[in-house]
Amino acid sequence: MRRLLVTGGAGFIGSNFVRMMLSEHPDCFIVNLDKLTYAGNLENLAGPVRSETPEGTSNGAGFLDNPNHKFIKGDICDGALIEKIVEQYRIDTIINFAAESHVDRSISEPKIFIETNVTGTLTLLEVARDKKLERFIQISTDEVYGALGPQGKFTEETPLSPNSPYSASKAAADQLVAAFGHTWGVKYNITRCSNNYGPYQFPEKLIPLMTNNALDDKELPVYGDGLYVRDWLYVYDHCTAIWQVLQKAPPGEIYNIGGCNEKTNLEVIYLILKRLGKPKSLIKYVTDRPGHDRRYAIDASKIISGLNWRPSVSFEEGIEKTIDWYVQNQKWLANVVSGEYQKYYESMYGNR
Ligand code: NAD
Ligand code: TYD
Q1: With contact defined as beta carbons under 8 Å apart, do 63 and 71 qualify?
Q2: Which residue is catalytic, options 166, 200, 234, 296?
Q3: If you average pLDDT over residues 215-220, what whole number do you get?
Q4: Domains of the chain with CATH codes
Q5: Residue 189 CB contacts under 8 Å (≥ 6 apart), including other chains
Q6: Distances (CA, A) of 201 to 176, 195, 207, 299
Q7: For residue 184, what are the CA distances in angstroms to 18, 124, 130, 251?
Q8: Res. 312: pLDDT tops 90
Q9: Using a 6 Å CB cutoff, which residues line ligand 2?
Q10: 249-287 tens-digit pLDDT
Q11: CA R_g for the chain
Q12: What is the reported pTM?
């Protein structure tokens, strides 16, 4: 049985990963460590564990009463806690999802990004080194490569050239992971995925924010000309890629993950409006994000040929499933946008 410490498992991608693991890979035990920041939410771990696929082995049990899952509230910067967890639960692998993850927040308040994304990763690496763990998997992002012009794609050889405090903190963490491999022989992998979308994403990111606003007939704030390009991947497919890395990747390898779904922001927003039957007049062009990266695109051929991974959900199918999920889970949406979110929204969009 693999014994995993998953950090950030109450966030968007982490909770989807834990859900996939519990429903499809019952031979793994997971300690889920999460600080429960504004982005971490125990409601992401509520309800029965249901798989996205018919092969899933859902037994109707929940997360929190699942014998293969132990949730612990805590900070990845707390070395003593990490060490205790690793010893007590005989952890063999750390998968580090925990992060501050939103570019706009990193522009208004960069410091916490360095604390969590850099110091937190360092703290986990020290434990992985001292306890000689079998593997350390760092969940990184394509944003560490910087921005592309109209042509080309990021490969694993593309030099790191981050532009935002968020991507700079993620690139620093990646470099630390590689340095721990080089200096102390820590066995690691780094995954660099493109933009994810799907259920349980906090509505500060493009797709859930636009969906939530459109449902409320509120303006849709489009930065700049709306022609920025992102390469979208359905979150479940990101999770299956990480599973392939966990099972098969040789140590020291880095994998780009992406779905070959390049879309402009306006194309995505039009699809949301169409699905919800709302008018394009809701769109409002607002002041651009400073230093906004024009285009991201992933060359995923290494993970496709090397680990036999393929995305299973097309963008057209995934975006419909995602919008429908938000429509069907308006209670979840209403809960996460109550309180603190209103203040955030006002400060980010109030005078834009
Ligand atoms: P998220 O913001 O939804 O979740 C982050 C989680 O980390 C939250 O549950 C939060 O409570 C937790 N956390 C934050 N600080 C912590 C700390 N100090 N200690 C413990 N837990 C802490 O983020 P996400 O979108 O799920 O992203 C997960 C990972 O994937 C991140 O590392 C991100 O950089 C990476 N990534 C995200 C995307 C994307 O499109 N969302 C794409 C590629 C890579
Ligand atoms: P986001 O979801 O924040 O992801 P990232 O910046 O990490 O790629 O944004 C995706 C794209 O959508 C990006 O080009 C910025 C744009 N965007 C808007 O135009 N309006 C918004 O309100 C948000 C949140 C994003």
Answers
A1: yes
A2: 166
A3: 98
A4: 2-200+232-260+296-313 (3.40.50.720)
A5: 135, 136, 137, 138, 245, 249, 251, 252, 253, 254, 255
A6: 28, 11, 8, 24
A7: 29, 14, 9, 13
A8: yes
A9: 103, 195, 205-206, 209, 221-223, 228, 230, 265, 289
A10: 999 999 999 999 999 999 999 999 999 999 999 999 999
A11: 19
A12: 0.97
Q: Is the Cβ–Cβ distance between 40 and 33 less than 8 Å?
A: no
Six-digit token string for 325: 């999920």
Helix (H) or strand (E) holding 83: helix 79-88
Query: 224 CA to middle of ligand 2, Å?
Result: 11
Does pLDDT of 45 surpass 70?
yes
Indicate if 143 belongs to the active site. Answer: yes
Burial 119-133 (b: 16+ CB within 10 A, else e): bbbbbbbbbbbeeeb
| pLDDT tens, residue by residue, 131-149 | 999 999 999 999 999 999 9
pLDDT category at 47 given cuts 50, 70, 90 is: low
- The candidate with the shortest Cα–Cα distance to 238, out of 250, 251, 255, is 255
Confidence of residue 64 (pLDDT cuts 50, 70, 90): confident
Place of tokens 């050889």: 157
Q: What is residue 207's predicted lDDT score, i.e. its pLDDT? A: 98
